[in-house]
Amino acid sequence: xxxxxxxxxxxxxxxxxxxxxxxxxxxxxxxxxxxxxxxxxxxxxxxxxxxxxxxxxxxxxxxxxxxxxxxxxxxxxxxxxxxxxxxxxxxxxxxxxxxxxxxxxxxxxxxxxxxxxxxxxxxxxxxxxxxxxxxxxxxxxxxxxxxxxxxxxxxxxxxxxxxxxxxxxxxxxxxxxxxxxxxxxxxxxxxxxxxxxxxxxxxxxxxxxxxxxxxxxxxxxxxxxxxxxxxxxxxxxxxxxxxxxxxxxxxxxxxxxxxxxxxxxxxxxxxxxxxxxxxxxxxxxxxxxxxxxxxxxxxxxxxxxxxxxxxxxxxxxxxxxxxxxxxxxxxxxxxxxxxxxxxxxxxxxxxxxxxxxxxxxxxxxxxxxxxxxxxxxxxxxxxxxxxxxxxxxxxxxxxxxxxxxxxxxxxxxxxxxxxxxxxxxxxxxxxxxxxxxxxxxxxxxxxxxxxxxxxxxxxxxxxxxxxxxxxxxxxxxxxxxxxxxxxxxxxxxxxxxxxxxxxxxxxxxxxxxxxxxxxxxxxxxxxxxxxxxxxxxxxxxxxxxxxxxxxxxxxxxxxxxxxxxxxxxxxxxxxxxxxxxxxxxxxxxxxxxxxxxxxxxxxxxxxxxxxxxxxxxxxxxxxxxxxxxxxxxxxxxxxxxxxxxxxxxxxxxxxxxxxxxxxxxxxxxxxxxxxxxxxxxxxxxxxxxxxxxxxxxxxxxxxxxxxxxxxxxxxxxxxxxxxxxxxxxxxxxxxxxxxxxxxxxxxxxxxxxxxxxxxxxxxxxxxxxxxxxxxxxxxxxxxxxxxxxxxxxxxxxxxxxxxxxxxxxxxxxxxxxxxxxxxxxxxxxxxxxxxxxxxxxxxxxxxxxxxxxxxxxxxxxxxxxxxxxxxxxxxxxxxxxxxxxxxxxxxxxxxxxxxxxxxxxxxxxxxxxxxxxxxxxxxxxxxxxxxxxxxxxxxxxxxxxxxxxxxxxxxxxxxxxxxxx
Length: 965
Hints:
With 965 residues, the protein is α+β, with helices and mostly antiparallel strands. Helix content is 34%, strand content 19%. It has an eight-stranded mixed sheet with strand order 13-14-16-24-20-19-18-22, with helices on one face. Strands 29-37-36-35-32-30-31 form a seven-stranded mixed sheet, sandwiched between helices. Strands 1, 2, 3, 4, 5 and 6 form a six-stranded antiparallel sheet that branches. A hairpin with a 5-residue loop joins strand 41 and strand 42 (936-939). Helix 4 packs parallel to helix 8 (282-309). The longest helix has 28 residues, at 282-309. 51% of the residues are buried. The mean pLDDT is 94.
């Protein structure tokens, strides 16, 4: 046997010097295959893609330092994985003309080995700039399956001392750190490796070993696109780093490669998936993150060394920035914090540590707790956006409770720390207690300690390693002395002071993102008992725990947005806020036409609740004024108003009015339409997105006509006028004349699409000629959303007989209306009288009046026109650059972006659309699909959004379509 490879006896490992032309000749001579040759990247070997008529292959020219036995082991291990896990694709070696799979090759004065393997179809995972949590999970599953398969591999693996064996990583870093060209990088690498080695020391001897792939990263995993346009890992390539090492190192290598794709929580789906396939032991959980850090450090210093000794190696040079980012990310948070995070992903939640000691505050006043959370009553009206919000709330509470000290509890996510229109989740959670006082207070030492000043904070270092950190602008404490528990240590001046505890003398950050808060809490014990010994707080349910409770009591058929929905508990203007203080631009909530939490509306409703709320059979002013205001918004002869409590009720009543006035029931509707969920409105709803059996289950009195879709329907472009002709013909051919024709005058359910010019004029004429009534469903599109028009029917230059309104009317308050002529309204008396308990109540009417006042006073229809036009221009520009955008529909702030897989066939992209919406939510935008094909992004935000908000939406969509979803 030839000498086994030992990295530590090698000065350097430059890749073999072989050109593409040489590689092509070699393959032709040794394997009888001729094809186009493309050089592929490798740090220490040389790889070439061979595209021949018979298929694709990869020529792998090994570094001369590696032996034939090494390559034979790699072949055998790949075959073993394929045998144990048939779903995993691996390269298969080809024999040369001489029958041998491994061929000798002389390059200059050196002889090395080469082999030709099949090309695993697909793209390497690193070709994608974003990996969704489900993709990360699939990668973790693949790593788990590979590890499980190789655990039973009994082939001979030469005992090599590889630089990629994480058992040797500390020595690799020590050997290569001086090659790091980044200022401070060498020392950072040594420090990180030393800390990781120390953290690993307690478990390293108990970690199980086996044969592992050793380099199962995004560069060595092949993926194909799934139906949703996301990569689906299916194959493992390049077994060149095959070795016997710690089994958990396989996952550590995979996790390190993921650090370039997002924040530190990006790795968690991979860990959970790996654990489901191949259980991770407690010792391996302790080891995992230190091994990630060691891998990141070894990868970074190795890359720097390779670029230094082999500057013409483009693959090594181009990876330097990526490898540095991975190292920076791996070392951005203390090891014990990340170990806690890793553990929490596969183990039950652990108790948060707390500290005990002598009370810090010497005061007769009981401290008052401050609420700066998303649900705080002190933060209404957007008060949380004031940079002084925290001190203002504290001053108000202290004055009201006549207390001297108030504090923000440990780990409370603060809405005051939110950021608007941001791709990243902000650091909102305090790793300590923040004090506010109205007068100077004496402070006492909670335990025996030595006082030291560190930058802008004072540390109280205890013998057991705990450190109490105090920071604030007016802290009067003398450092440099040793104190006993309970001894005076200084004064807390009036103002704010932060109190936190750490497990060592390194000061932790005070604010962290909510996703890392529980992990940080394992190393930053809760100091609340030092401030308020009587406090006994309980952690709230997580979003996932609350969702489980919802599904157990709230009928699951009432679906929710998003696969893992954030817990939204506040809205303000056109943003929503979850309980972690994360903001989301709301681009879908057409119900809240004024925006969320409008103070004028909430004030008016509260005032009316205090006065009176009853039903419309009583006599009061609000119902009169609201009815008059509504009627005045409609053209003659529409002058009579019914008030109801929803769009379903409004459309249901409109149908009953038509039936009562005509004495018939037959109703003509458009396909792909939704009008409500009552018996009557469901019968006339034809959208298969809302009811997959809609068309097959319509009663005989419902007559659908073709959706007049000028983009993808039977008639397109200039031929779209034929939809009206066909509808008129269909109406004339009915066995019984219709009672009504019902349609959205602007095709909202199809994605904000204008009807063909003149469509309603011709159809309305045919319906009326047959003695029927024309109903305009304005529930989604009316009330100024179109910008140029207050009502959708105005865009078609028609006047309906009956108009239905809801949603925007009450800005979320349950309110709807039917407006018609007095004669049609009187015709309902043949059915008895009409009454809706909540529809015309005083509170509902005041809500409706206030909405109309704000629409007028804040010029929201004009804003919809101007901002909507700007946004539409931005979206059209995106369509020029992203082929998946087939069309941009709509006007004003009712827009639709239709996504297709092919612009010629117009094949819908529903799975991609759903995935894009999920990714946009991660980046801070609420978006949902619509249309029967669920491939249209429905853009219908509150009408108060500004140009900056529209740009953030367009920038977010651009980023998603550029990076992937």
